[in-house]
Each structure stands twice: as C-alpha cells, then as structure tokens.
Design brief:
Low-confidence stretches: 1-23
Keywords: Signal
CATH class of the largest domain: Alpha Beta
InterPro entries: SsuA/THI5 (IPR015168)
Distance between the termini: 51 Å
Strand order of the largest sheet: 2-1-3-10-4-11
Structural class: alpha+beta
CATH architecture of the largest domain: 3-Layer(aba) Sandwich
Strand content: 15-25%
Helix content: 25-40%
Largest sheet: 6 strands, mixed
Number of helices: 21
Shape: globular
Protein name: Nitrate ABC transporter, periplasmic protein
CATH superfamily of the largest domain: Periplasmic binding protein-like II
C-alpha cells in the first residue's frame, strides 16, 4: 500500500499554515525584545512550557523582574499549534524563538534547522515524560472488531506523520511484524481531522499523542487498542530554543526555564487547579486533562533531561531516516542541559538528584474513606471525582474504587470521573472505559486493563480469569 505522507510532511516543514502566517512576529523597536513562543495547547504534557505557563503568566512575571532592573521591555507572543511540524517551520523561518514538541518532532526540528546558524536549535529542557511510552496510543471506534494491533493489517490508520504518535505507531507495528509502510495505509492528518475520520469510518484506527486518545475514550468515540507503554521505551516532550536567539538573549532563556520550573511546581502542588487552567486554555474537558496530568497520570512533569531520554532520541534516529531524507543529527550536541543546570543552581536545587528521580513526582495518596485504609501503593491507587466535593477521593486499590463508585451511585451523587491504573502496564485510565477481569487467582478481585490485549494476556496466564462488564465489576466488588 502507498504510504501517503512524504509530500505532506515536506510541505509542513517548509511552509507554514495560513494561521501561522498571520502570526508573524511583532516588529521589534529599540529597547524592546520580542519573545515568540510556539506551543501546543491540546498537547497537555507540554503544559509547563505552554498552556499552564501562559495561563499563570510566570514567564511574563520573570521578564518584568528583568525590566525593573534593566529598563529593557520584553513582549511575549504565544503561538498555538496542533503539532510540532508548524513550530519547526516557523523556527526554520526564524519567526519562533522557543518551542515545545514531542520526541520525534524534536529530532526533525534539530535535523531541519541545523544547516542555518540563525535557525539552529538545541533541546534545553523536558516538559512531561513517561518512562514506558504511555504518552502515545492507538484508538479504534468503540464498536470496532479490532482487538489487538495485528488486526490493523491492511487497514487505514490516521496519524500526524513525524509526530510522537506516528513514531510510536511505526515502532509498534514493526515490533508486531507489520511493515509500517506496506502493512497498513497511513493517512497523514492533523489530530482533529483524524478524530473525525475515525468517527465517520474513513479510517479504522487513530494513532496520536496525549490528550487525543483519552479525549476520544471520554467522549465514547474511541476505544483504546494499543497502549504505547507496551513498548517500554521512554516518550517525552521537550523545549527547543534557537541558539542564535539564546546567545543574543540568554536572560530570556533563563527566565523561560525559571518560569517552566515555576509552572511545574504549581502543577505538583495544585494538580486539580492546574488541570482546570489547562482545560480552559485548550478547550479540552478537565476530566481528560486530569487523567494524564493528575496524580499518578501518564505524564510525569520534570524539566530535567535524563540519560534515558537522550538514549531514546539516539534510538529514534532510524525512524527519522524511515520517513524522509533528513540530515544526520548529533544528539549529544543537540541536547544542552547547561542552561537548566544554571536555573536549578540559582534556586539551590540539586540537578543531578532530580535527574536520577524516575517516579512520578505526584501520586494518589491519603486515606481511603471507603475501605478505611491508608493509600500506600501508587500502582494500585485509584481516584474518584464527585461533583460538589472540594477535593477528589482516593481509593487504595481497584476493589476499593469500585466500592466507592457503588456507594456514590447509591447516594445519588454525580461522579465526574473515576481513574484507575492498568494492572499490567500501570497506565492510568478511566474506570468505566477499562476492561475488567475477575480473577480467582487474586481472591476473585476485579482487575482493570486499559486494552483488550492486556486483559487477554492476563487471562492467558490465569485460565480461570474472565472478562466481565463494568456493571458486573461494580456489583461484585468487595
């Protein structure tokens, strides 16, 4: 089958959409410095360098402090895009100074900009990451007969070519023994176009990055087929800056990184409020944002650049070569953590200790009021969000969450959302969109899985286990 993306990808990287053309940088006057930020409001694991950072005004506050000391005025322009490709195009045209995008787009950004000294970029921080790869997923329609990834052989799949979601699709298909160029037909589409194509039946699957899979599941327009965590490869989004701009205005880059740390701290301290701000700025439901960005969510917000992430970039080079003619990229020269190390040092923070930390900085904790126990195991802990309650309610394990849901229903309380980690992979998912398995081997416990494939892998290892519907799990939990 023809893989329809080369021409479209090339166009995206050398031209800018009509919307982007209307966002040319404001002319800069004497004594004034423009800062043009390219971000993706709907890619919520870039929130600390995008939607949340913008909503809280942390960067503007940092720059105002510089203005008070130097009398130099800074004007920040925010440009919102659906994917990383147009941000790269604008950086190549020297019209965006700082941008955030996923791991695969970062590679394309570095490869495309390196020939132009004024456009040449470097990675200076990470926004959100998942150590296993759960930021990218493949979704099918709710009533689709496809249950495992290999069922997509010969089918049409929507993906944004060159995106993190597409990179995961290519890697997953290859691992499953399917040639990603001939085994499926990939339609290069923006996420919102692909979502509509899935709903209308024009494509059989939709491969994208957060928050699109969760959004479609929440809207009951999609069912999770493949969780990127199955690949067990780090996925992340990061920040790139034009080196020429950073050399001319190092104080701006420092202010940006300090502001990103401010936004990260705010998200850790007030995750529910942060989710609301990101939802307001992106147009996404708060329940979907909180699925990923809340405690124990798939996104760990940590600006440090970890060795595993650098290695992942190096290992992703074959993907870059597979989708087009891209110049070689020296990853060790492309990644520069010196400015972030300085930002940490200025706050008396230990950068090396932060780099070594690999668990999500925020997890579900507290006291489970239904099971009357402390919530201590983040791999089991769920979270219940009930309308009218000032805070969410923790659950020590899947059984306790099901009991809490049953009690809330009995009281006539409105459940806004309920979250639970996948039993096998640990990916947090909606309880009512999970596949539930009753397992005699686990004292007849009800175990949640985010995909049918995960549930079937468990059943294969525990023949007495069986899939039950959500209502049966609610009724049977003890």
């Amino acid at each position: 089958m023809k893989h329809r993306f080369t021409a479209a990808l090339a166009a995206a990287l050398v031209t800018v959409s009509a919307a982007g053309c209307s966002l040319d940088s404001k002319p800069q006057s004497a004594g004034e410095v423009n800062v043009v930020i390219g971000y993706q409001s709907k890619t919520i694991n870039t929130a600390t360098a995008g939607a949340l950072l913008k909503a809280k005004g942390f960067l503007e506050k940092r720059l105002d402090d510089i203005t008070k000391r130097t009398n130099v005025k800074y004007t920040v322009q925010w440009q919102d895009y659906d994917t990383g490709a147009p941000i790269t195009a604008q950086m190549l045209a020297e019209k965006i100074d700082i941008g955030s995008m996923g791991d695969y787009p970062l590679l394309i950004n570095g490869s495309k900009t390196q020939a132009n000294e004024r456009a040449k970029t470097e990675v200076v921080s990470i926004t959100g990451y998942n150590a296993k790869g759960a930021l990218n997923m493949v979704v099918v329609s709710p009533n689709s007969p496809e249950r495992v990834l290999t069922d997509l052989r010969g089918q049409k799949v929507s993906a944004s070519v060159g995106s993190a979601g597409h990179g995961t699709l290519v890697r997953a298909l290859t691992k499953a023994g399917i040639d990603p160029k001939t085994g499926v037909e990939v339609l290069n589409q923006q996420p919102q176009i692909g979502a509509s194509a899935l709903e209308s039946g024009q494509v059989q699957a939709f491969a994208q990055f957060v928050a699109w899979p969760g959004l479609l599941a929440f809207q009951n327009k999609g069912r999770l087929l493949f969780d990127g965590a199955e690949l067990d490869v780090p996925t992340f989004h990061g920040v790139v800056v034009r080196r020429d701009y950073a050399a001319q205005h190092p104080e701006v880059l420092d202010a940006f990184l300090q502001a990103q740390i401010d936004a990260t701290d705010f998200l850790h301290e007030k995750p529910l409020e942060a989710a609301k701000l990101v939802a307001d700025g992106s147009g996404l439901p708060q329940e979907v944002v909180y699925l990923y960005n809340g405690p124990g969510g798939a996104v760990s917000f940590d600006p440090t650049i970890k060795p595993s992430e650098v290695d992942a970039l190096k290992n992703d080079i074959p993907y870059l070569k597979s989708i087009g003619d891209f110049a070689d990229l020296n990853i060790d020269q492309f990644v520069n953590d010196a400015p972030l190390r300085k930002a940490f040092a200025d706050r008396n923070l230990n950068y090396d200790n932060a780099v070594a930390a690999i668990t999500n900085p925020i997890s579900v904790g507290g006291h489970d009021p239904v099971c009357n126990v402390a919530v201590t195991d983040p791999t089991l802990a769920g979270e219940l969000w009930i309308d009218g309650h000032p805070t969410t309610q923790p659950a020590a394990n899947p059984g306790c969450l099901l009991r809490a849901l049953r009690e809330a229903n009995a009281k006539g309380e409105k459940v806004i959302a309920a979250y639970i980690p996948d039993t096998e992979l640990g990916t947090r998912w909606f309880a009512d969109r999970s596949v539930w398995v009753q397992s005699p081997a686990a004292d007849n416990a009800y175990l949640p899985f985010d995909t049918d494939a995960g549930a079937q892998r468990y059943i294969a290892a525990h023949p007495d286990a069986k899939v039950v519907d959500y209502q049966a799990a609610l009724a049977g939990a003890v």
